[in-house]
């Protein structure tokens, strides 16, 4: 089951964080079709957020066709976003080792995020993905 972590200092709306974390779990194969999401009550108890915030996130996920609410039963995953590398893959392990090395080198989370984003931009820009047609 997914455990949500809310960063109140991020500037990202709480319900959006829940949506993003759910999508990440779907991409990584941590959630699969048929899996049940935590109840709003469970999320509230774990994160101390308003139940309406959880329900808003779940409605957004439902609107996107990723989950479905079943009255009296809970909210269940309808489909995955499974094109990413699963958490147990060698690439995940290499990235995990790289992040640990970056932290040992004295980089903080923001430094690592900036560095990683710069590398992503280099390799995944539209121009690059089209075979560098310039």
Structural account:
By secondary structure, this protein is mostly helical. Helix content is 52%, strand content 6%. It has six helices and two strands. It has a two-stranded antiparallel sheet with strand order 1-2. Helix 2 crosses helix 3. The longest helix has 16 residues. It starts with 13 loop residues before the first helix and ends in a 5-residue tail after the last helix. 16% of the residues are buried. The C terminus is likely disordered.
Helix proportion of residues, in percent? 40-55%
Q: How much is the average pLDDT?
A: 87
Largest sheet: 2 strands, antiparallel
Radius of gyration: 17 Å
Strand content: 5-15%
Keywords:
134 residues, mainly alpha, two-stranded antiparallel sheet, 6 helices, 52% helix, disordered C terminus
Furnish the topology, listing elements before pairings.
Layout: H1 14-27, H2 40-47, H3 51-63, E1 67-70, E2 74-77, H4 90-104, H5 109-124, H6 126-129
Antiparallel strand pairs: 1-2
Helix pairs in contact: 1-3, 2-3
Gist of the model:
The chain is mainly alpha-helical and 134 residues long. It is built from six helices and two strands, in the order H-H-H-E-E-H-H-H. The protein starts with 13 loop residues before the first helix and ends in a 5-residue tail after the last helix.
């Amino acid at each position: 089951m997914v455990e949500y972590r809310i960063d109140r200092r991020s500037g990202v709306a709480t319900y959006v964080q829940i949506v993003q974390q759910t999508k990440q779990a779907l991409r990584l194969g941590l959630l699969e079709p048929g899996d049940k999401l935590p109840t709003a009550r469970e999320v509230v108890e774990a994160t101390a957020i308003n139940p309406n915030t959880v329900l808003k996130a779940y409605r957004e996920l439902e609107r996107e066709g990723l989950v479905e609410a079943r009255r009296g039963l809970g909210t269940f995953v309808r489909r995955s976003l499974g094109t990413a590398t699963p958490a147990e893959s060698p690439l995940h392990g290499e990235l995990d080792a790289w992040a640990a090395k970056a932290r040992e080198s004295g980089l903080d989370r923001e430094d690592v995020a900036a560095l990683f984003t710069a590398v992503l931009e280099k390799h995944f820009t539209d121009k690059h993905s089209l075979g560098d047609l310039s």
